[in-house]
Design brief:
Length: 266
Amino acid sequence: MQQRKILLRAAQILKAAMLAYRETVYDVDLTKIEYRDGVLYLHQNQRSVSSQSKRGPFPYHITDNLEHKEAALVKSQSTAAIALLGPLTRKLLRGVPLKIETMVINIGRPRVPTRLVPGPDVHGGPHAVLKIGRIENNETWIINTTGCQYGFRDVLVPFVKYFHDNECRILSGPRIYDTCETDDLDYLSTLHVFNKTKVQRQDMRLERLTRHHFAVFIYMSVHDDFLVGSGADYKRKFDRFVNGLKTHMVDSIRKAGGDFEDSEDD
């Protein structure tokens, strides 16, 4: 039971960290959120590949619905979350006898699908999650930190239940979860389609820098006793962590200033 509690708390922290990160470096020019006919539509001003993304705080005036806000924050972010949260996951669960893997799945039955308007939007596309095996008793769980975009509220769900309820199928994996915070960017930087223009390279450089700031906070703030303690103690640590992460990200981005500028010529 104690190990299961640790796992649940870790999953909650991972989801909260991803949401806090996106709240401070949101890069969608969102204009309206509309729920209609069982679908959540995210209306945006779509930018061209020659226009730099507008990064900054999430536009809180768009909605006061927490579930809609969280869905917008993590739309199309599952691969980024797997990379970003790698060091934090290993730090939180260090010493716990678990097998931690990542896998890419297709979700056949979302509760509330989220769509970008206009696209691009990949309906039924790949979605990255964590597969957690408890070595001592043969339990297997799914941690899905970006499931809000499908209307999923629970971040930790038994493997069999998750696959059955959501009609999932495996697209790739599972494989050992050993990623660092920029692994997906390292891969994207090798693809010409993501590096054709100066603006694309600037955006990737900015994302890499903000993720390094995130990793610094994790290194400095998460300690071995982070997930232990009474419910009240954990709640205090949880709130302090989320608020501290948001403040750190905002301050780091502001202080970086000119580091975000790319002086290279096309």
